[in-house]
């Protein structure tokens, strides 16, 4: 059984202690560090090679999203879970932009927390489809995709060869249009689980751990095109 290495970035000692106790009861989880100092966090990420980082969105000593961005930059395979006081569309959008794998409120149950940590450590992307499917938010995410691809359009060489199957490319194209898993399943007349299986395969093949990165990768290599809103 592989050990899941976790770093906890939360200012409230009691809440942090609860997270630690919950995860240590899993039996295959090791807490490799706890801090709210940005420099300490990045050093722990560099030296301890964590699989999962839990970040309190309400940090006051440091910018939690900037910490997430820097951690993802130095450790692209690190899965980040953003713990937020309440659901907030702006914070969710920013979490998507920095590549968070999951976004959940701090009233998450211990069972849900364990399930979330296990899933993101295996490369799953849990930001909920019903939130991503909000038209205004989906539009902002698509605009973010477009800006990223325009920035590197001149410098990135297009690669006709794709390691993805035609169905996987098709699914990425639907994701780039802002479709949820349920909408993709309905359009392609396949099950939600089949869509999830394809997405897991895409992430593994492209060595990325979230759908934003997968879509940007495919756009930059010319496998799919950015659609106008």
Automatic annotation (TrEMBL):
<dbReference type="GO" id="GO:0003677">
    <property type="term" value="F:DNA binding"/>
</dbReference>
<keyword id="KW-0238">DNA-binding</keyword>
<dbReference type="InterPro" id="IPR000792">
    <property type="entry name" value="Tscrpt_reg_LuxR_C"/>
</dbReference>
<feature type="domain" description="Response regulatory">
    <location>
        <begin position="5"/>
        <end position="121"/>
    </location>
</feature>
<feature type="modified residue" description="4-aspartylphosphate">
    <location>
        <position position="56"/>
    </location>
</feature>
<keyword id="KW-0804">Transcription</keyword>
<dbReference type="InterPro" id="IPR011006">
    <property type="entry name" value="CheY-like_superfamily"/>
</dbReference>
<keyword id="KW-0597">Phosphoprotein</keyword>
<dbReference type="Pfam" id="PF00072">
    <property type="entry name" value="Response_reg"/>
</dbReference>
<dbReference type="GO" id="GO:0006355">
    <property type="term" value="P:regulation of DNA-templated transcription"/>
</dbReference>
<dbReference type="Pfam" id="PF00196">
    <property type="entry name" value="GerE"/>
</dbReference>
<dbReference type="InterPro" id="IPR039420">
    <property type="entry name" value="WalR-like"/>
</dbReference>
<dbReference type="InterPro" id="IPR001789">
    <property type="entry name" value="Sig_transdc_resp-reg_receiver"/>
</dbReference>
<keyword id="KW-0805">Transcription regulation</keyword>
<dbReference type="InterPro" id="IPR058245">
    <property type="entry name" value="NreC/VraR/RcsB-like_REC"/>
</dbReference>
<protein>
    <submittedName>
        <fullName>DNA-binding response regulator</fullName>
    </submittedName>
</protein>
<feature type="domain" description="HTH luxR-type">
    <location>
        <begin position="157"/>
        <end position="222"/>
    </location>
</feature>
<dbReference type="InterPro" id="IPR016032">
    <property type="entry name" value="Sig_transdc_resp-reg_C-effctor"/>
</dbReference>
<dbReference type="GO" id="GO:0000160">
    <property type="term" value="P:phosphorelay signal transduction system"/>
</dbReference>
């Amino acid at each position: 059984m592989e050990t899941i290495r976790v770093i906890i970035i939360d200012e409230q000692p009691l809440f942090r202690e609860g997270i630690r106790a919950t995860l240590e009861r899993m039996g295959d989880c090791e807490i490799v560090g706890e801090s709210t100092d940005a420099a300490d966090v990045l050093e722990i990420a560099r030296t301890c090679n964590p699989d999962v980082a839990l970040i309190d969105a309400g940090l006051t000593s440091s910018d939690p999203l900037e910490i997430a961005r820097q951690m993802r930059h130095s450790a692209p395979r690190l899965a980040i879970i953003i713990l937020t006081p309440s659901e907030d569309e702006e914070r969710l959008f920013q979490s998507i932009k920095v590549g968070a794998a999951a976004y959940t409120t701090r009233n998450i149950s211990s069972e849900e927390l364990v399930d979330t940590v296990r899933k993101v450590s295996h490369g799953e992307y849990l930001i909920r489809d019903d939130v991503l499917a909000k038209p205004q938010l989906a539009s902002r995410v698509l605009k973010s995709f477009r800006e990223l691809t325009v920035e590197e359009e001149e410098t990135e060489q297009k690669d006709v060869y794709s390691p993805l199957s035609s169905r996987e490319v098709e699914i990425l194209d639907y994701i780039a249009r802002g479709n949820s898993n349920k909408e993709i399943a309905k359009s392609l007349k396949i099950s939600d689980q089949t869509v999830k299986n394809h997405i897991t395969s895409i992430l593994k093949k492209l060595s990325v751990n979230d759908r934003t990165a997968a879509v940007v990768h495919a756009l930059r290599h010319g496998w799919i095109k950015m659609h106008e809103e």
